[in-house]
TrEMBL record:
Matches recorded under PANTHER family: PROTEIN-EXPORT MEMBRANE PROTEIN SECG (PTHR34182:SF1)
Function as written in the Swiss-Prot or TrEMBL entry: Involved in protein export. Participates in an early event of protein translocation.
Topology class, membrane: Multi-pass membrane protein
Family: Belongs to the SecG family.
Gene Ontology MF terms: protein-transporting ATPase activity
Cellular-component GO terms for this entry: plasma membrane
GO biological process: intracellular protein transmembrane transport; protein secretion; protein transport by the Sec complex
Organism: Bifidobacterium ruminantium
UniProt protein name: Protein-export membrane protein SecG
Location in or out of the cell: Cell membrane
Length: 85
């Protein structure tokens, strides 16, 4: 197994883990009002417009994980395009 094949495998495993983590982080966010979140009881929460420290940290982690996710997808795409594997 070549070094580039090992890098590709590690990136693919990391992509799966980050995909699951990103899905969980997105589902943990509060609904911002309107739409489907109100249908399922999202409109009953108090202070839906304000975000506390936990919500801000959740937002930060979601953005960081999303940027890593995109970077890995671009890296895998470039590796495939230039036949580095």
């Amino acid at each position: 197994m070549s070094a580039m094949a090992t890098v590709k495998l590690v990136l693919q495993i990391l992509l799966v883990i980050l995909s699951l983590l990103l899905t969980l982080l997105i589902l943990m966010h509060k609904g911002k009002g309107g739409g489907l979140s109100d249908m399922f009881g999202g409109g009953l929460t108090q202070n839906a417009g304000s975000s506390g420290v936990a919500e801000k940290n959740l937002n930060r982690w979601t953005v960081i994980i999303a940027l890593l996710w995109v970077a890995i997808i671009i890296a895998l795409g470039l590796m495939t395009k230039f036949n580095l594997i």
